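Researcher: Please translate sequence to structure tokens.
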Amino acid sequence: IGQIAEVAIHDLSNLLWSYPALELDAGCGLFGLARRLLAERLPADSAAVIEKLAARTVTTYVVAEVSEFTNSLLEFAWSFAFAGEDMVEVGDILRRSLLAIATVLDERCSWQSLLGPSSGAVPYGLGPGWGSEVPSIVLDLPGIVAVLKPPHWEVDARAGGSLPGESSGAPLFSSFLRKRFPREVHPLMHCNEQQFGIIHRLDAPSSGLILAGKNFVGYYTLRWQQDTYELGREYLVLCHGRMCWGPRVINAKIKTSKAFPATSKVSDEGKPAWTQVEPICILERTGSTQEQFTLVAIIIRTGRTHQIRVHLKHIGHPTVTDGKYTDQLTYNSDKEWCSRNFLHRHRLTFVDTDGLLREAVAALPKDLCEVLRGLRPADDGQSPGTMRRLREGWVPGAALV
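Model: Translation complete:
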């Protein structure tokens, strides 16, 4: 314990991250000491990073160094938030440090200084052919944009950047951002190493809303909320079987393979994951046999790879038309009446760069509405009314902010 004052910020963040991740006691003396040390050191360490940015020619390598520091700040924030610790004092220091660095990055970075070897070059031109259905901007704010992703677009944003050859062959979501936002004005959105400003992913077969930072202040404003569970992410998912009414929380850990394409599974060796599931409509399909399905509203706190699909499979209600997490027979049967994975991110809530609470919403797209038209709501007093409202464009939870 006496040597902890000599620990680098990055190692200190790993130490604090390990407590909630490994379900250790955050009330122990070492966790508290690390927290106090962090509050004492952060102002000076952040000032040193800002001074370095101001004094040196900004290159991709300098930005990478700074990103390591900002990622440590976000890991600190996550560890306190996940452990349920009071963040009033240290949280304010962390957030102010993060946004001060982001402001200087925006002032000092041009597209020439940001674009590394894998940004903007082949295969990161415009990607494969776009086809007829393209993303659309739902909310365009200073520093932040919310975009509706159609199905079969790949969100090519990975920590440290995507590697050549990792694309599935689908149109690249970053290509839309890079075409819509010029690199001279929004260099961050052209930088593969910084995930094109995109803060979260959505599986290629799925549709829904994606948030991206148009500059570093917007990007880190969103990242902060994501890592401290202040960002609201809500989904509509159709799953197999009749689920009992009422909300339930699934907090089974998820482990993701390192191979490409990635697969995930519930495992005690995995990372913490939290999903809330609430049925809103019971549906029936009459074929050779009568099948029941449940349309569920889902809220997530964590964002593990394929988290919703893995958690629903774990509780015995796999998503409809899921070629990765259902057996081949079920997948083939589903695909006859639902051409793609029935998962849609319909609502996001967040605070913008001016401190205002914002909401982005997207009703179920036409193809998923057509799927629902082929199903019959159960005669239970609730499902028929819910089905009617969904067909009319109702978005659960909308306009509550």
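Researcher: Any highlights?
Model: Residues 121-125 have pLDDT under 50 and may be disordered.
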